[in-house]
Amino acid sequence: MQEFSRLVPTTTQAAARAGAVPQASFIAGGTDLMQLWKNNVQAASLVVDLDRLDLRRISLDGPTLRIGALATMAEVAEHPDVKRRVPAASEALLAAASPQIRNMGTAGGNLLQRTRCGYFRDPGFACNKREPGSGCPAIAGENRELAILGGSGSCIATQPSDFPVPLVAADARVELHGADGQTRTVELEQLYRLPGDTPHIETVLRPGEVITAILVPDAPANRRATYVKVRDRQSYAYALASVAAGIELQGGVVRDVRLAAGGVGTRPWRLDASEATLRGQRLSPALIEQAAARATDGAQPHAKNAFKVTLLRNTVRRALQAVTA
Amino acid sequence: MTAPITRRDLIGTSAAAAALPMPSLADAPAPAAPAAPAVAALTINGQVHRVAIDQRTSLLDALREHIGLTGTKKGCDHGSCGACTVHVDNKRVLACLVLAHRVEGRAVTTIEGLAQGDTLHPMQAAFLAHDGYQCGYCTPGQIMSAVSLVEEGHTQSEAEIAEWMSGNLCRCGAYTNIRAAIQDAARAKRA
Fold this sequence. Notes:
The complex is a heterodimer.
Chain A: E1 5-7, H1 12-19, E2 24-27, H2 31-38, E3 46-49, E4 58-61, E5 64-68, H3 73-78, H4 80-85, H5 87-94, H6 99-102, H7 107-111, H8 164-169, E6 173-177, E7 183-187, H9 188-191, E8 210-216, H10 220-223, E9 225-230, E10 241-250, E11 253-262, E12 269-270, H11 272-278, H12 285-294, H13 307-324
Parallel strand pairs in A: 1-3, 2-3
Antiparallel strand pairs in A: 4-5, 5-8, 6-7, 6-8, 9-10, 10-11, 11-12
Helix pairs in contact in A: 11-12, 12-13
Chain B: H1 7-16, E1 38-44, E2 47-53, H2 59-67, E3 85-88, E4 91-94, E5 107-109, H3 122-130, H4 139-152, H5 158-164, H6 175-190
Parallel strand pairs in B: 1-5
Antiparallel strand pairs in B: 1-2, 3-4, 3-5
Helix pairs in contact in B: 3-6, 4-6
């Protein structure tokens, strides 16, 4: 691990300004950073510790649920307003990591967890994300866990977190505080960049920009929602495929529907074609089948992850069955 | 009569035995200068320890290497196994993923802080009674996690206990007895 000095600012503005210098890194829960630093995947010479910022509150602001970026994963999962407004987010958090890690990891930090691709995590290998231009051994190598959606010739790494999947489905936004003192909000789905030729640039965050909150709008389809996660073992594992599904039915007709998938895309993947298949139609097993089939529109499976095409369709079907039962 | 020598005494002295003959490093490249250690005042089991440690030091290494509390175990050192589970402000966390300097001013409890003198914590006693281990390496982490799990109230069924203990791996596979010990300790607490 590279040595660093640590700064503990008490205001978001001071943190943003400190974080804007090259080689600076914010630390919140630190659960992913500690692994990345120990393995020399990532290094910082200045660590800007967010521990003393007042960004931990979860509150209702009219129709908007506001989740402070420094609330822990456990605090968010157990919060009554989260369970009521966006239950799939609570379910996703409880299906993530372990109880110990959920006591440490934060809402904002979890959005930025880096890929679990084994090549990225091991500096002994080439990786375009870790070392731009060095190549991607995953595309013709061990790609069982990697993406079938959103990949490029440079990178097929998945965004591994569960929490952003139901949030993307719920049209959540993130509130950002910039080094220049300006704040802005960005659609969570748009926070993540597709890898293209620059897989090392993962988000649209500007230098020093701090995620201060996650904003979730209220909607019947966000309240009636669930999260289905499929993994190699029953607990404490990353998703091979996961689906957040929310629905609003009126007289048997789909009035609103939100679907997003995790574990299969280079970012939390909104399933637009499946939603379009369902919206305005009378719900039936046949309709669910059609929607599930559209989930893999544009999928590009690789030698060892082609099973994810079937797995994703089946997970969409399961999630829709569960949320409409 | 001389005092018996314990394993711990030997481990303790070996750390100080820097005078042992070492191969010459004259030909090796000079290591980078270590980061200047800074003093951290860490409250462990109610006692304040002032230790001069590098900013990079994990709470796990601070406990084991600098304070001499070796009950907390290092398994994977990457947050995958749970062997280093301790409590910070009464919540279970993984000491290998915590920077020690960040827990200044917080209350850390380790396995050494559970017993009251010679009286074991009820969870420790339950692990003994149910033989909730084989090699014992994961046991301190299992017990620290189990104490929290009971506090959190996740003991309604064996399946719930299994799910909420999933962050603690046991390579010997003592899970059946671990779950039995936890169920027993939880029942005793409710009674």
